[in-house]
Amino acid sequence: MSRLSRRAFLARCGWAGGGITVLSGCGLVPPLPTFGTSDAADIYTWVQLRPDGSVLFYLPRAEMGQGICTGLTQVVAEELNVALKEVNCQQQDTSVMQPCQMTVGSQSIENYYELTALAAASLRQQLHQRAAAQA
């Protein structure tokens, strides 16, 4: 049995790593999806006022115990100036969500805080406009 020197081992690992890099660039290894973002047309469907006066919030990311349902629901409640218990958070079917590389709580809050606030603020503005038109 021949002994492999440390230098030879590192050289061989370097060639193997380089080969994997080249192969993945050629499409043999599928790339990971991006972190995913939603466009303006998507966000306006996330927050809805129901006939009974409650608010329905469709969560833009899968909740898997990271707390994004609670965090983003708080954003909706704050923007609409309603109690947190008035906002019903629903998970969307993953087939209608934008593909994403991963679902993590802190990045979901970071990536979707402003979009969620914008969606809720848009609903608030529409309600103000309708109320003003009836006055």
> In percent, how much strand structure appears in the residues?
5-15%
Taking pLDDT < 50 over at least 5 consecutive residues as the criterion, the unreliable ranges are: none
* Biggest sheet statistics: 3 strands, mixed
Strand order of the largest sheet: 1-2-3
* SSE pattern, N- to C-terminal: HHEEHEH
The value of Rg in angstroms is 23 Å
What class, by secondary structure content? Answer: mainly alpha
How many strands in all? 3
Distance between the termini: 92 Å
Overall body shape: elongated
Could you report the average pLDDT, rounded to the nearest whole number? 78
The amount of helix comes to 40-55%
Number of helices: 4
Structure report:
The protein has 135 residues and is mainly α. It is 50% helix and 10% strand. The radius of gyration is 23 Å and the shape is elongated.
